[in-house]
Design goal:
416 residues, alpha/beta, Rossmann fold, 13 strands
Length: 416
Amino acid sequence: MSFKNLGLSTELQRAVADKGYDTPTPVQEQAIPAILEGNDIMVAAQTGTGKTAGFTLPLLHLLNAHPKGKGSRFVRILILVPTRELAVQVWESVKTYSKHSHLKSTAVFGGVGIFPQIRNLRSGVDILVATPGRLLDHLSQRTVDLSRVEHLVLDEADRMLDMGFLPDIRRILSLLPKERQSLLFSATFSKEIRNLADGLLKSPKMIEVTRSNSTSELISQVVYPVDSKRKRELLSHLISSEQWKRVLVFTRTKHGANKLSEQLEMDGIQSTAFHGNKTQSARSKALSDFKRGTVQVLVATDIAARGLDIDLLPHVVNFELPSVPEDYVHRIGRTGRAGRVGEAISLVSIDEQKLLRDIERMLKTEIPKVIIPGYEPDPKIKPEPIFNRRPPFRGPRNSSPPRKHGKGRVGHSFKK
């Protein structure tokens, strides 16, 4: 099947062809016709499956097919995403595929100044990509009107729930028209996601491209058992001896990311850290340097496990295993994208055996273990507890402080 068989407009087919694509991915092949028919959909698809184009293309088609009168530009598509990086990525896709139309779009997210965003919103936009927190900031200042949204997309919905955005999402949903098309995309169909879908979607069409909590067959996985204190030494050895040119490395904490990046630099390996304590400009520079190849290793926390689209990323390393098994899937999903093979390496100490068993139980498979000569674990070392384990999401965080609103902001109630 080609994109010409999916019922998309000539302008959108031309934009797709400009990107060099001619054959839709499985998620695009299923989602695009369903969206064009006006169905609500619930999609389980991992990153790298083409899901962004899977909802962007049909929604742009629907907007172009039903234009509004001149001078009446308002938000018709709202796309909610969990992170700044994903907001930028989705907005880039919207701009790419809408370049042959007259539709306007923008993105709003935290970590950058709000006033340029306000100017863009006040000039009128058809498509808005937003993170929940910054969107609530705009709503409180009455710089955006959601009362005429026709299509809603929740992208990476499981990640938004995991990050505690459910109360924010519910406040935003309360401002949208009841009659709308709603699309939910998630890596998994967890119980929490199904509960959210029950109150959001109307008779949704279910699309599951891959088995829930599974990993791509294009990604080879291996565990290297090693003592915790020798992990950095082994990582440097692997990067140098295997001549890896681009490596994404995950740690559990921001401090750990900073420390490991500094140690790799001392080993002569160009490295930079990427996490939530970095300013948006610092994160953008780190990612840009990594993509250009001026930085060899990007050491990141789980904020980078979602929403980063990095071409030609052959290696992902779990320097520390994630505390939540599902995050393992999202981490290693950064490689093995767009039909390319990738390798996921986990450096596992005796302390992390419970985390590894949880991951293997979720995947329903055992990950191969390989001991690197010279880095054999010391059998006399006893496991020590890992104290920073993050519990799975169990609903809104009632103990969280309320969102602060400055002078002139509405606070807790918004009216249409």
